[in-house]
Design a protein that fits this description.
mainly alpha; 14 helices
Length: 356
């Protein structure tokens, strides 16, 4: 059957068939990643409302479908049917481009995320560097949204958001440098494999050999910075309703607003997946005797736990003031990451180096 199809399309496209097939196969793999990610993003909104409801001893969504499982579909249909209003005196081209620039980096970054030893769309050697470069583009979508709306509230929200995102991107960047230092590679597969060795790994206690233990301060800083990077509570001063309404997306409606909303949740999942790869062994099982379970399931479980920590923080802590957020980023996290970077570098040159 495959030989017949290959022969047919080979005759149809001639010498261009290998290039055409490569393009088609790449698009199929992209869809195999993008569609499940978007499904997870949609149902993460339901899980957040359910989890916060349980933590606050109240009911979450339970009316649309059994146990409220159709609520994300109802929300998507509502947003698709709502009118997209473009302000009269706005920059219409930039107004349309901004939501796209916000959500696309969160999806493009999945191209270098490995789900197993060889299960990755683009197994590039500089995957970590590519992820940092791509995700840093998101701040442009936020700034453009605030500028194009021609609204003082939107512009103030965009300035707040961009300042906050840049501040915590620096701390996250230094954390990634520490991980690069101990793993000796920018490739995500190599970073995961570097955690699959050592005394505890030989004993079958895999989770004790992962980076979370020796790099625990960096792990904590990365997760807190991830919450601030995604403008999530308690760092969501960008959407402080009592101050600046809804931040940079106050003038957006319908599906254009939904793209900002989905970008926030997509970034939560992405940051959680990267944390699982860098600190929690990626697709590796916590114990050797559980190695028969497919690696992508372990990566999914770890990512789910990390995402739930975002929701836990939202349900538990009051909102920070903007000056407190800036102080935490510039005067606490950046100095701490630099100091720990020096400590790890000295540790690696000592006789007690555990990453050999």
């Amino acid at each position: 059957m495959l030989d017949m199809a290959n022969s047919f399309f080979g005759n149809l496209f001639g010498s261009y068939w290998p290039e055409v097939w490569f393009t088609v196969w790449t698009l199929i793999k992209i869809l195999c990643i993008t569609v499940p990610v978007m499904g997870c993003v949609a149902y993460l909104t339901l899980w957040e409302r359910k989890m916060i409801g349980w933590m606050h001893v109240r009911l979450g969504p339970n009316r649309v479908g059994p146990l409220g499982l159709l609520q994300p579909i109802a929300d998507a249909l509502k947003l698709l049917l709502k009118e997209i209003v473009v302000p009269t005196r706005s920059n219409k081209a930039l107004f349309v481009i901004a939501p796209i620039m916000t959500i696309m980096p969160a999806l493009v970054a999945w191209s270098v995320i490995p789900f197993g030893p060889e299960v990755v769309l683009a197994n590039v050697n500089a995957g970590l560097l590519l992820l940092m470069a791509v995700t840093s583009l998101e701040v442009y979508g936020v700034i453009i949204a605030g500028w194009a709306s021609n609204s003082k509230y939107a512009f103030l929200g965009a300035m707040r958001a961009s300042a906050q995102m840049v501040s915590y991107e620096i701390a996250m960047g230094f954390v990634l440098v520490v991980v690069l230092l101990v793993s000796g590679s920018l490739n995500f597969t190599d970073i995961v494999m570097s955690q699959s060795k050592g005394r505890f790994f030989d004993m079958g206690i895999n989770f004790m050999s992962w980076n979370w233990l020796p790099l625990l301060p960096m792990f904590v800083i990365y997760m807190i910075s991830g919450i601030a990077e995604t403008n999530r509570h308690p760092f969501d001063v960008v959407e402080g309703e009592s101050e600046i309404v809804a931040g940079h997306m106050v003038e957006y409606s319908g599906m254009s607003f939904a793209m900002f909303f989905l970008a926030e949740y997509a970034n939560m999942i992405l940051i959680s997946a990267v944390a699982s790869l860098m600190f929690l062994g990626g697709w590796a099982a916590p114990f050797s005797f559980l190695g028969f379970i497919p690696g992508w399931i372990w990566l999914g479980i770890k990512t789910f736990v990390m995402v739930s920590m975002f929701i836990w923080a939202r349900a538990s802590f009051p909102r920070y003031r903007f000056d407190q957020i800036m102080r935490l980023g510039w005067k606490v996290f950046i100095p701490l990451t630099l100091v720990y970077l020096v400590i790890v570098a000295a540790w690696m040159q000592s006789p007690w180096n555990i990453w050999q």
